[in-house]
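FORM 7B: Structural annotation worksheet

SECTION A. Query
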Amino acid sequence: MTPENAPNETLAMASARILVVDDMATNRGLVRAVLAPLKCQIFEADSGEQALELINSLSLDVILMDVLMPGLDGFDTCKKIREQEDLHLIPIIMLTSLGSPDDIAYGMEVGATDYVTKPFNAVELQARVRAAVEKKRLTDRLDDAESMLFALARVVEAKDRTTADHCDRLSHTAVVLGKALGLNYDDLEALRRGGLLHDIGKVAIPDAILLKPGKLDETEWAVMRQHPTIGAYLCSALRTMRSTVEIIRYHHEKWNGSGYPSGLSGEEIPYLARVFQIVDVFDALTSERPYKKSIPLDKVKEILRNETKNGYWDPNIIEVFINILENNPEQLKLPEQAQTGRDSEIFQNIIGSNSLEWESRR
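SECTION B. Predicted structure
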């Protein structure tokens, strides 16, 4: 720690909220004493059950968890914490006498982010807690930035009442197609986010153009065509959005080079953007609008194949998508409870709760 950043770190630790979970009061007292120099706020729970009750009422930065507790042990408590979507990012440090490789591996498997064995070194524990608080603050800032982008995208969607649930449907359909294509976990997540954020650039398009009921003139169309570039710019600062940014920027390109904004063709178009193009046009064809009725699936398949012959879409991806339409069209139905902008339940439901299979495909 250098002198210039010492005050900032002191302030950060003073506002840090730590939960110590241990059935032994002496152990909790020892941890409290060790962490006292950090000036952080310490809360205590004497069981896994009490910890679960407290967690939902406290805004925590770190949880220090003993394993050997009566009733709900540390491993099971950790699993239950990770089952809650809004608690995925809380660092959990297992603080226990169980230090075998198997114990450590199992702790990480159930959701622990770090592991310190007893008896612990005071300096080491302080350093682990500092690092965990810093990581939590970084992920909080990232989560806040992403939430703001998602909220902005919802504002764009809300402007046009004829496109209700459009973003949620695209996220769902894109992940279904991505899974059929054998894409890995990160690519599926990029497609899920792309469904919500693909048109975020329209926030900069005047309502007179965006909501015009008739055909756009040449000048208006030139303005409208800027939205993919604007949207990509808005999201480009977040490294976690890198693959999603390519979807946003290039989802209006066409296989034959006649699209926009860059006139890319064939495999010049990023693969995920090519995947997303197809679900975007599918949703446009099958959705009812004031100016058109929903098109039946048989007609949609015919249109997609004809447009592919005319050079619009990647022919290999189209065939995989049409196979879904012919054999498993029920997979494309949006779950009634899905709200992609608020949580990723739709995503987890499709790929399954265990993401290890998808992680292995990276």
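SECTION C. Observations
Confidence is low (pLDDT under 50) at residues 1-8, 339-362. Residues 59 and 208 are 43 Å apart (CA to CA).

SECTION D. Sign-off
Analyst initials: ____
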